[in-house]
Structures are given as C-alpha cells and as structure tokens.
Write a structure and sequence with these properties.
alpha/beta, single chain, 23 helices, eight-stranded parallel β-barrel, 593 residues
Length: 593
C-alpha cells in the first residue's frame, strides 16, 4: 500500500483498477514462460504491421502536402521496421531469453543506441533518433493493444495519464470509468472538464505514481482530499464502500429536485442548460432536469479518425439529440479543435504555442469544405426549429462575416439537393477572448445570441495557461478585470436585446451563481452533475439579493478580497439552503422528463 498526495481537481471518491493510457513508463520488465512465447511473438508481428501502416500513411500524407524530400524520413523508418537484424534481436530475447515483449524492444533499442554512438559514420549516428522513433511507435501499438484488452475485460476503471487530452479519451468506455489520475493538468483543463461532466473524482499533480504503478493495480482516488492510495488494504476498501453508500443516499435525495422549476424565491426563472458531448451525456442531463443544451461539443467527429465524420453521420447524431430535447433548445458548437485537443499543423510540425495558434474557428476557416459539411449537417438537424449553431473562439468581426457567407453557401447547396433544413437557424458566437468581450457591441448586431466561455476568457485575459498546474494560483475567475468583462458583456447584450449565456466552468460552480445572476445572466449551461447544486442555490435566494451582492463586489479591488467576500456570503447562506433544500414546490412540465 502506498499513499500519494496531489491536487483535488474534481470531487468524489472511488476505487477500481488502474489503466495507464499515454505513458511508456509502465513497460513491465518481467520474464515470461515458454507457453507465452507464441502470443508475445504474435503481438510483436501485429505491432510491426500497425507501425508499418502508420509510417506508410504518414509518408503518403507528407509527400502529398510537403513533397518527397520531406517524406524521406518516414521511408527510412519503414526500412528499419523491416530490418532483419532488429527483428531477430527482439525475437531472440523473447524466444530464448524469455523476456517480455516491451522489455525486449527497449533493450534492443539501448543496444543499438550504444553501437551507433561508437560508429565513425555520421550517417548512422544521425539515424539514432529515427531508431528511437520507430521503437516508440512499436511500444505505442503494443501498449494500445494491452490497454484495449484491459478496457474490454474490466469494469470500475481508474484512468491514469501523464496529461489527459481529448484525443486520448474520445474512445474510452465512459460508463466504466470511476476516476482519473493525472501527472499534469489544472482546474480547467480537459481532464478536469471531463471528470466533472462524468461526475467522477480527479486528482492531479501526482508523478511518483507512474514510477510504481502498472496496469491492473487496485487504487482508491479521493477527490475531496486530493489523495490516491495504490494497492489499498482490505480495511481501506471497506471504508470506501461505506462512504460510497452514504453518497448514493444523498444523490437520491437531490434527484427529487430535478423536476422542480428553476426559479428564485421571488419567482424569477433561470434557464439551466447542459454541456454535452454524446447521447449518454444528453440522457444524464435530462435526468438532472436540464431544460435544453447550451453547448454540444462536436470534436469527437474529428478526433482520432483518418477522415472526419460524414455529413450524414453528423446529421443523424445531431438530429437524435435535437429530437430528444424537443422543444427545448439545443446549441451545437462547431468543431473546437486545437489548443489541447488537436495538432493543427502539418505532420511532424509542432506549434510553438497551440493556444495562440491555429485552433477552433481558425482551423475551420482554413478547411472550408470540412467546415461546410458540418454546417450542412447542423442545418439539416434543425428542421424542427429547436437547434442553434454556435462558433468558437471568434477574435475579429471579419470571421463572423466569413462564417455567414459559408452558411449561405451551405444553404444553397442543401436547397439545390432538395434536403430539408432550418432556413432561419439562430447563429451565435462564443465570447472567449478580451478583444471580442471589450468590443461586444460591434458583434451583437451581427449574431442572434452569444455564449461566454469563461474558461478561455479567464485564460486569455490573465495570460495564464489554464492547464498548467504550476501557475494554477494565477488562474482567477474572480479577478476584477474578468468580472468587469462579464458584466460589460451582459449589459451590452441586454441593451441589444440579445440572449447571453454562460457555458464555462463558472456556470456550474454554485458559489458563483449569485454573482452571475446579479450581473444579469439568466441562462447558465453546465455539466450534468452540477445542475442540481446550481438549482438548489437559485431556489434558495432572492434576485434582489444577487444584485446587491454584485454591487458590493464591484467595490472590491482584488481577487482575494472578492474570494473572501464570497466565502463569507456563501457560508452564511449555506445552512439555510441545506435546511430548505427546495424539494417542495411547482414541478416543471416536460414530456421527456
């Protein structure tokens, strides 16, 4: 048994079997038996075939995009994969030395590395990195095969990763995942958002675990205290089961609130929407009382695919969710690739700063046919009239004008092909960068609605990488400059009579609910697990109180002072909210509930 202390990123407590998904550190250096030799060799040949296919695909792609000279590196690596000496060395270590496949590959790499270093021939010395790259590709396919088998045969899985990215998680069996552990990642990175959307604990900032743990180890993750226990004792597991039983009973009580109207004590209604990325997310949100979708993430149709999803595939999925929530609104955001989600450059080319590079709408506008295909699918899915289309990370008004031209072109194509579509679908943008927030009055006449992505707005306003745990203390949603922008956006939206919502992490944080309502926001969109907490908060307060709270906050000059104010206000009102949980009252009418 070993305990590790990290950062508490997503609350909850769970236990399960460990699956490490993006690390080479968990290669087991163990002996195998004679009966395992055949399966190890078969796995090796499968990995060789997959590696050769990957290199062939890269060679063809780079030749097409950059030319033959640039593709030569991948052709050299293809030759290495077929090199008899390299293959024989690995097979000998497996068959004769009875070493595991991963161990045999690593050892062969080190032998070759030492030999190449001693050679006088500069050509061979330069091939060292190529040899390493080939080896790492092989190990990647071997580990991927092991992980896939593990994911298919186990339940109660704890995902551990050095840094969890959307490209790693898009194909994970989310119904089996009970917790996450990461070495890197802050409060608003992809891992944090995913963990909260699933309602499972996440502890970050743990590096020592990856040196000790291996796939299949039992582990307990305590997101309340930021603690991870590797190979827990029977007593610790018994304690875990007791805690989980108490939590289940509390969740049952809270679910009674899901059918109640979301309104303040003085009767003002607030629209609570869900952030989703799949149909399962949609079902979870419906159970928690969501009155529609404020953010439908569509990156899954473009990640980890050789080709983007077709128009018909996207249309079917979008339409399914639109019908499921009808007549409530469904806001579909076009692909928000880049940043921590997608390598946007050419193969082998790494962007120096992906958050400030080619991402989101910039990628879409550079790939107009792929972009237009998605727009056509969304327009078709909106024939019932409850779908809205939204575009991410707008930074200048010219982008809005260009988007509208592409929408018009997509409509003409649909009309020409006699496909039904929503001719008057509302068009909205995400407000995520200060340039748009400051000059929002120039954008509002050109769109039907706006949605504030607070995660990126905080990041870009304060110049703080939201996924970097080493500077997480500088990521301050309550910084006066951030609150100034949020209030400015809300006031301008009211002036132009345009709908404005919040769809970032602040919307799902009940400690911030009073503040956002006081600014004038009436549409909040969040991950399903937070809907009940925010609804309880709304039902416990008067709207007049929230206005007074914001007026007081405007006079405070630092994030720490505002945080102290919220802590005092929140703790003062928490007891009353818990005593009157709001489980009696008017029930919302929804045929789908």
């Amino acid at each position: 048994m070993k305990k590790y202390k990290g950062l508490k990123i997503s609350p909850g407590i769970a236990g399960g079997h460990l699956c490490i998904i993006n690390s080479h550190q968990n290669i087991e250096h163990n002996k195998i038996s004679h009966r395992d030799v055949k399966s190890e060799l078969e796995q090796f040949r499968t990995a060789l075939n997959e590696t050769e296919k990957e290199l062939s695909h890269l060679s063809a792609q780079v030749t097409k995009e950059l030319g033959k000279d640039e593709a030569a590196i991948f052709q050299v690596q293809q030759m290495m994969v077929k090199d008899p000496y390299f293959l024989n060395q690995i097979e000998h270590k497996i068959s004769i030395d009875l070493k595991s496949l991963g161990w045999s590959i690593e050892e062969t790499l080190e032998d070759a590395y030492r030999t190449m270093q001693q050679l006088d021939d500069s050509y061979f010395r330069e091939r060292i990195n190529d040899f390493r790259d080939v080896t790492h590709r092989l190990l990647k396919h071997i580990l991927a095969s092991e992980r896939q088998t593990f994911l298919e045969t186990h339940k109660d899985i704890v995902i551990a990763a050095e840094n969890l990215l959307p490209s790693h998680t898009v194909s994970l069996p989310r119904n089996k995942i009970v917790a996450f552990i990461t070495e890197h990642g802050g409060l608003t990175g992809h891992a944090a958002i995913l963990a909260r959307s699933l309602g499972v604990p996440l502890v970050s900032g743990i590096s020592e675990l990856f040196k000790k743990a291996k796939i299949g180890d039992e582990v307990i993750v305590n997101g309340y205290y930021g603690e991870v226990i590797l190979n827990p004792t029977a007593k610790q597991y018994k304690s875990l089961q007791r805690i989980k039983s108490i939590i289940r009973e509390r969740v049952k009580e809270r679910k009674k609130i899901a059918r109640l109207v979301t309104k303040t004590k003085d009767g003002e209604k607030v629209l609570l929407l869900a952030n989703i990325g799949s149909f399962q997310d949609a079902k979870d949100a419906m159970q928690m009382g969501a009155k529609g979708v404020g953010l439908y993430r569509t990156e899954m149709y473009f990640l980890n695919r050789e080709e983007p999803a077709s128009e018909d595939e996207q249309y079917r999925d979008y339409k399914r969710i639109a019908d499921y929530f009808y007549p409530d609104p469904v806001v579909i955001r076009t692909m928000d690739l880049g940043g921590d989600k997608f390598q946007a450059g050419k193969p082998g080319q790494k962007e120096p700063n992906p958050y400030l590079g080619c991402r989101a709408i910039r990628i879409s506008l550079r790939q107009p046919e792929i972009f237009k295909t998605q727009i056509r699918a969304i327009l078709r899915a909106g024939v019932s009239g409850n779908v809205k289309i939204m575009f991410p990370m707008i930074t200048c008004i010219e982008e809005v004008h260009e988007i509208k031209k592409i929408i018009d072109s997509a409509k003409k194509e649909l009309k020409k092909s006699n496909k039904k579509y929503d001719q008057k679908m509302p068009v909205g943008i995400m407000v995520e960068v200060p340039s748009v927030a400051i000059d929002i009055a120039s954008y509002l006449p050109n769109v039907d609605f706006i949605s504030v992505g607070t995660n990126d707005l905080v990041q870009y306003t304060l110049a703080v990488d939201r996924g970097n745990e080493s500077i997480s203390n500088l990521y301050q949603p309550l910084n006066p400059s951030v609150l100034f922008l949020l209030n400015h956006i809300s006031q301008q939206a009211r002036l132009f009579k345009k709908e404005a919502s919040i769809c970032g992490e602040m919307a799902g944080t009940s400690r911030y609910t009073d503040l956002l309502l006081g600014m004038g926001y009436r549409n909040l969109s969040m991950s399903a697990p937070f809907l009940l907490h925010v609804k309880m908060r709304i039902r416990s307060i008067n709207m007049k109180e929230t206005t007074d709270i914001w007026e007081k906050m405007k006079t405070l000059t630092s994030a720490s002072k505002i945080e102290d104010f919220i802590e005092k206000h929140f703790s003062d009102s928490l007891d009353a909210m818990m005593l009157d949980s709001g489980t009696s009252g008017e029930v919302e009418q929804n045929d789908n509930t």
